[in-house]
Design goal:
By secondary structure, this protein is of the alpha/beta class. It has 2 domains: about 5-145, Aspartate Aminotransferase, domain 2, CATH 3.40.640; about 205-300, Aspartate Aminotransferase, domain 1 (Alpha-Beta Complex), CATH 3.90.1150.10. The protein contains 10 helices and 10 strands. The strands form 2 sheets. Strands 2-1-3-4-5-6 form a 6-stranded mixed β-sheet, sandwiched between helices. A 4-stranded antiparallel β-sheet has the order 7-8-10-9. Helix 2 runs parallel beside helix 3 and helix 8 (about 205-225) packs parallel to helix 10.
Length: about 300
């Protein structure tokens, strides 16, 4: 990025995204624009989500950074539709001025099926310890060939050609590939090697089966608790705009009180640690429909 360039992101993105963009903007003189994509997450629509982002793009926009599934509300962005709209906006731009679509997929990887190519994104990053159930401290970065040419390494790699150039007091290779953009040093190789088992486990179960199992539990839970007096579901009901995360609130009851009450009943849930605190539920491949039904009954007791 250069001075005067813009990066567009949202108020719903995580600390890591906001701070990484802020630090990069300070280094380059670029600016960061944050927008809200919805006022009420439960009423979000695909047209609103895509429309608000596209309407904010300017001739200086060089990147759009979004999160596929929001950890604070459970809203799932229609990334493929957004990617198509950005591709249209890029139609008349020079290669260096193209808008890059960068996606944080940490709460989608291991549930959703779309590939980066199907999403029409340029960069996709994700931790793999959540819905994929991989080892802690592991993650993936996928970059399109076009975006690769615009990335700049910031941490020295221990890749052979770069290291040899250092020994020879020569300039390192200018060509960019994954090895030259991977930080060097001593890595937790055992965790990385074990990650293949997590991907293999999902392949063995069938990725479509995993998504169906997760979606069915999440939908059943949302529909059941929505019928309880005083319980409000913040996450959209439609599977098209939600994934595995379900966020709820109970009138007159602090989320931490519900959390403690559920823990006493044997349920491990969570709280969204952001400006808005919701009780957060995550049905997945390690939970069953019977457990989901029992959780609804426990929430009914606390509501």
């Amino acid at each position: 990025m250069d001075e005067g360039d813009e990066v567009l992101t949202t108020t719903h993105d995580f600390y890591s995204t906001h701070e990484a963009l802020r630090l990069r903007a300070e280094q380059t003189g670029a600016t960061v624009d944050q927008i809200s994509l919805y006022d009420d997450p439960s009423r979000a629509s695909a047209d609103e989500l895509v429309g608000r982002l596209i309407d904010r793009i300017t001739p200086r926009t060089r990147a759009v950074a979004v999160t596929w599934v929001h950890s604070g509300t459970g809203v799932k962005l229609p990334v493929a539709e957004l990617g198509e709209a950005i591709a249209d906006a890029n139609g008349t731009r020079r290669a260096r001025d193209r808008i890059l679509l960068c996606v944080d997929a940490v709460h989608a990887l291991g549930v959703e099926l779309e590939t980066p190519a199907e999403l029409r994104c340029d960069v996709l990053v994700s931790g793999t310890q959540k819905w994929l159930f991989g080892p802690r401290g592991t993650g993936i970065v996928w970059v399109s060939p076009e975006a690769l040419e615009r990335l700049q390494p910031v941490i020295p790699p221990f890749e052979a050609d770069s290291f040899t150039a250092w020994l020879d007091r020569a300039q390192p290779p200018r060509a960019r590939d994954a090895s030259r953009l991977t930080p060097g040093g001593y890595h937790s190789l055992e965790h990385r090697w074990a990650l293949a088992e997590a991907f293999g486990f999902h392949d063995e179960m069938g990725k479509a089966n995993v998504r169906t199992h997760t979606r069915e539990q999440a939908t059943t839970f949302k529909e059941a608790v929505a019928d309880l007096d005083g319980v409000h579901v913040a996450t959209p009901m439609s599977p098209e705009l939600s994934s595995g995360i379900v966020c709820i609130e109970i009138d007159g009851v602090q989320p931490f009180g519900v959390l403690a009450g559920l823990l006493e009943r044997g349920f491990s849930t969570g709280i969204t640690p952001y400006r808005n605190n919701y009780l957060r539920i995550g049905p997945s491949i390690v939970t069953t429909p019977d457990e989901t039904e029992a959780l609804v009954e426990a929430i009914a007791d606390l509501a």
